[in-house]
Specification:
The strands form 2 sheets. The chain has a 4-stranded mixed sheet with strand order 4-5-6-7. A 3-stranded mixed sheet has the order 2-1-3, with no helix packed on it. The chain is an alpha/beta fold. The protein has one domain. A hairpin with a 2-residue loop joins strand 6 and strand 7. Helices cover 14% and strands 30% of the residues. This is Heterokaryon incompatibility domain-containing protein.
Length: 148
C-alpha cells in the first residue's frame, strides 16, 4: 500500500508540510488501491492565520516560552516531528512536564547554547515560526527521524 503524510495546522487546517508518497511495489497497476494520506496535526495556526502574524521571529520565540510559564517543579520538553528528508522544515512542539511525574516521557537532553548566538535559523514551534541558534537547528535536523 502506498502512503503519504500531511502535516496540518490544528486551528486553520492549512498545510504545514506534505511528505512525498512512499510507493509500494504495486504502484501504477490497475488494481492498486488508492494512496493513503495520513494526517498529523501540528501547532495551532499557520503564520498567515496567527493572531501574532505581524511579530518578528524573535518576538515569536519569546511568545512560545511565555505561553508555557513554569512552576519550580516543572520543565519544558520538546517533541520533534519526523520528516521525509533532512532538508524538510523542522517542526517541534514545546510542552511542560513535572519533575518526578510518572507521565514524563522518555527524552534525550542536549546542550545547544554553544556557537554564535547571532547565527540564527527558523523553525516552527507550537504553530509559530521562531528563530533558534544555528547549533540547535543543526542538532534537531540530525536528531529527527527520516521517514523512508
Amino acid at each position: 500500500m502506498c502512503y503519504g503524510v500531511a502535516a496540518l495546522y490544528d486551528a486553520c487546517r492549512c498545510l504545514y508540510y506534505q511528505n512525498p508518497v512512499a510507493r509500494c511495489a504495486g504502484y501504477g497497476r490497475p488494481s492498486h488501491p488508492p494512496i493513503t494520506i495520513e494526517t498529523i496535526i501540528v501547532g495551532y495556526f499557520c503564520a498567515n492565520h496567527s493572531p501574532t502574524a505581524d511579530l518578528t521571529l524573535d518576538e515569536h520565540s519569546w511568545q512560545v516560552y511565555d505561553s508555557l510559564p513554569l512552576t519550580q517543579d516543572e520543565f519544558r520538553l520538546l517533541k520533534l516531528y519526523p520528516a521525509s528528508t533532512r532538508q524538510a522544515p523542522i517542526l517541534i512542539d514545546l510542552f511542560k512536564s513535572e519533575y518526578g511525574s510518572p507521565e514524563v516521557p522518555r527524552y534525550d537532553a542536549i546542550s545547544y547554547r554553544w556557537d554564535d548566538p547571532n547565527d540564527r535559523r527558523s523553525l516552527t514551534a507550537n504553530g509559530r515560526r521562531i528563530s533558534v541558534t544555528c547549533s540547535l537547528h543543526t542538532a534537531l535536523t540530525y536528531m529527527r527521524w527520516i521517514l523512508d
